[in-house]
Write a structure and sequence with these properties.
Blueprint lengths: L1 H16 L47 H13 L1 H21 L5 E12 L14 E13 L6 H67 L5 H35 L29 H4 L1 H22 L4 E12 L11 E10 L7 H67 L5 H35 L9
Antiparallel strand pairs: 1-2, 2-3, 3-4
Length: about 475
Amino acid sequence: MRPRLEYLALAMVGALTLQGCSLAPNYAPPAVPMPAHFKEDAGPWRPAKPADQLQRQWWAVFQDAQLDRLQHRLLDANPDLKAALAHYDASVAYASQLHAGLFPQVNASVAPLRQRQSDRRPLRGNAQPSVYNSDTAGFSLNFDPDLWGKIRNQVAAGDAQAQASADDLAVARLSLQKQLATLYVQARGLDAQSRILQASLNDYTQALQLTRDRYEGKIASVLDLTRAQSQLAEARAQLDDVKAQSNLSEHAIAELVGVLPSDFVLVHDAEPLKQPDIPQALPGSLLQQRPDVAAAERRVFAANANIGVAKAAWYPDFSLTGLLGGQTQGSGNLLAAANRYWALGPLVNLPIFDGGRRSAGERQAQAEFEEAAAQYHSQVLKAVREVEDNLGQLRDLEQESQDQQAAVQAAQSAERMATSSYEAGAVNYLDVVTAQTNALQAQRRLQEVDTSRLQASVGLAVALGGGWTSGH
């Protein structure tokens, strides 16, 4: 008996010595070519690393209290965000299950039985009763020393997947915040459009009254009167359309913050939103902040660890099992020496032939790694492109805003001149209608450009992973 125990002890020491072994390839994030700076900006940036802390309240750059309140309501009540959080919790729980494989598994069992054996049971003795009691209680132990790193690589892959799930949660949060901010900017822009149209309605109403007075005084023609009426009706129709769009935006915001549209009212503020100041050189931590890029990198790591799991399947699977307990025929002390039973020893499972299953599993793991690496590359390219898009939009829209402001001033000046000339009888009413229509279109277009600039600022903040300032 003693030599066998010595062999067992030696086997356990050898198993513990091999525990540091891992068959997973040495990991490094896939190399992705990076530009020295953004095409639309001169700011340099660094290669990808795991996700840095996000700017939690990136929308604060717009300095709007109502937007801030809505964003907090979204975080508290949005059902899609709650679903993403539950998915993250499930991923963390699964990773914890994998961690349990690193430790011995101990179980206890109790089985008090009353049973009958067959009269024709093979090898049954004549003195054995047909009905008897069998009481059993004991402990079992099973421990896998993980010689080839299979369990450790499973744990590493599970942890990486949980980290990726955390980044997915951040992606969902950031996406919903972007939707809310974009809708809010759109709603505020539609409010401004309504005010522009309402002011034009007031002007058109006065112009119609002037034309009616001139018509009754035999100064203006019926054509001038119908043109004034048509212009007023068209402006009212445009205002109705803007109000309808505004209602849709308000309903969408209500859904995002988890409120029924009938219970939600957006406060209208005449003060325009401020265009945020964007630094000339953007921070170099783009890929550190973007959670979708970080999630893609963690999935590459997990796929690399799974290659180690697949390779470990080629090697013998060694585990240590043990049993300790007692058994009686319904009477007596289970713990008495005569009633005890125990067993201790290694279990080795050596793969010999499986029809190519392990080979296919290793090829699958390698292919999944290459897929994850390609997706990571794609995500990096997407991140850079989205930043470039929004930088270019902001630059072009700023110039367009300046040009459109000049167009508004010129159109308003032409409108005043046409109205004065019509009152003096120097031009017909068609010139007034044309000038007023041009002035209204120029003002509305300027407002649309300003709204697009604000939305591009939202897009840039999200493309950078949550603003252009460091998180806290």
